[in-house]
Design goal:
The relative contact order is 0.13. The radius of gyration is 21 Å and the shape is globular. Helix 2 runs parallel beside helix 3, helix 6 crosses helix 8 and helix 15 crosses helix 16. The mean pLDDT is 89. The strands form 2 sheets. The chain has a 7-stranded parallel sheet, with helices on both faces. A 7-stranded parallel sheet has the order 10-11-9-12-13-8-14, with helices on both faces. The protein folds into 2 domains: 207 residues, 3-Layer(aba) Sandwich (Rossmann fold); 162 residues, 3-Layer(aba) Sandwich (Rossmann fold), CATH 3.40.50. By secondary structure, it is an alpha/beta fold.
Length: 378
């Protein structure tokens, strides 16, 4: 099915071609017509499945038919759990928004940055991408208005609920007009997602894309058995022996994140950490440095990795296991995307053995194991 069959304008189809979108992904094929029909939608699709474009494109089409909103009156609100994802989503809106034939402006707002510049730039914004806390601050400062809002989009709703945004969500919903189109996207379907579906959505279309298994087939997985005190040396050995030029390393805490990146740098490997304790400026520059190759290793925590989208990322390493098998699948899914092969490596200490068995059972895949004692490293 080509993009030309989905009801998009010629200018957006041309933009898709220029941005090397060759054919729509399943979530795009199914979601775009639903959103164009202005129905509510719940889409279950993992990160990296093309869901951002699946709502950006029809949102721009729907905005075309609306009269211009008053200044500081937002037409479309997109809520996301992290600053990085806010920037990423707004970038896609901006990319395609340049190709529409009506006045359009999008903006990302988030905490960890000064609120005053964000307030000053709010003029004539059509689409606002926001984290919940900062959105509430802006609303309570009278910097924006929602009376002319036509669409609410929740992206990564599963993560938003997991990190405790419920009270903020209740307050935000109280700000919004009751008559609007609602879109909810989540990587997983859970009781919490079903609950918010019942509150937020009206007779929604439900789309569920089963793609985890397909993506896993593109990922070469290997696990290394290693003693706890040998993880650092093994990590450095793997990076050097496999000549990894770009690798995303996962840890379970900000403390460990800093520790691992510091140790890599002290051993001559260009590495940077990204986690919630870093300033927004530091986080943005770190991701850019990783994308352009000036940083070889990016060490990240799970929540921050939601906003990291690297084209053709070749390597992912689990320095520590995540608590959830779903988070494990999400981690390794940073590689092996868009029909490109990738490699995922997991370091398994004796304390991890039981949990790693559970992870393998959940993803229905036995991972090849190597005993690190057979390797020559210090």
């Amino acid at each position: 099915m080509p993009f030309s069959s989905l009801g998009l304008s010629d200018s957006l189809q041309k933009a898709l071609l220029n941005l090397n979108y060759k054919a729509p992904y399943p979530i795009q094929q199914q979601a775009i017509p639903v959103i164009l029909s202005k129905k509510d939608l719940m889409g279950i699709a993992q990160t990296g499945s093309g869901k951002t474009a699946s709502y950006v494109l029809p949102t721009l089409m729907n905005l075309k038919d609306l009269p211009s909103a008053k200044n500081r009156h937002i037409r479309v609100l997109v809520l996301v759990p992290t600053r990085e994802l806010a920037i990423q989503v707004e970038t896609v809106f901006n990319q395609f928004g340049q190709h529409v034939d009506f006045p359009f402006k999008s903006m990302a707002v988030f905490g960890g940055a000064s609120i005053n510049p964000q307030m000053m730039k709010m003029n004539q914004v059509s689409v606002l991408v926001a984290t919940p806390g900062r959105l509430i601050e802006l609303k309570e400062s009278n910097a924006l208005h929602f009376e002319q809002l036509t669409m609410l989009i929740l992206d990564e709703a599963d993560k938003m609920l997991n990190v405790g945004f419920k009270d903020e969500m209740d307050k935000i919903l109280s700000f919004l007009p009751k008559k609007r189109q609602n879109l909810l996207f989540s990587a997983t379907l859970s009781e919490k997602i079903e609950e918010i579906k019942g509150i937020l959505l009206h007779e929604p279309e439900v789309i569920k894309i089963e793609s985890e298994e397909q993506n896993l087939d593109l990922i070469q997985q290997t696990a290394y058995s290693v003693e706890l005190d040998k993880r650092g040396p093994l990590l450095r050995h793997l990076i050097q022996s496999k000549s990894m030029k770009q690798v995303l390393v996962f840890t379970s805490s900000a403390y460990q994140c800093d520790l691992v990146s510091d140790k890599l740098r002290s051993n001559g490997i260009k590495a940077q950490a990204i986690h919630s304790r870093k300033s927004q400026g530091a986080r943005t520059s770190t991701i850019e440095a990783f994308k352009n190759g000036s940083v070889r290793v990016l060490v990240a925590t799970d929540l921050l990795a939601r906003g990291i989208d690297i084209v053709n990322l070749p390597f992912v390493i689990n320095y520590e296991l995540p608590r959830s098998p779903k988070d494990f699948i999400h981690r390794i899914g940073r590689t092996g995307r868009a029909e490109t092969n990738g490699e995922a490596i997991t370091l398994v200490t004796p304390e991890d053995e039981h949990h790693f068995k559970v992870i393998q059972k959940k993803m229905k895949k036995q991972v090849d194991r190597i005993d690190s004692r057979d390797l020559d490293f210090k």
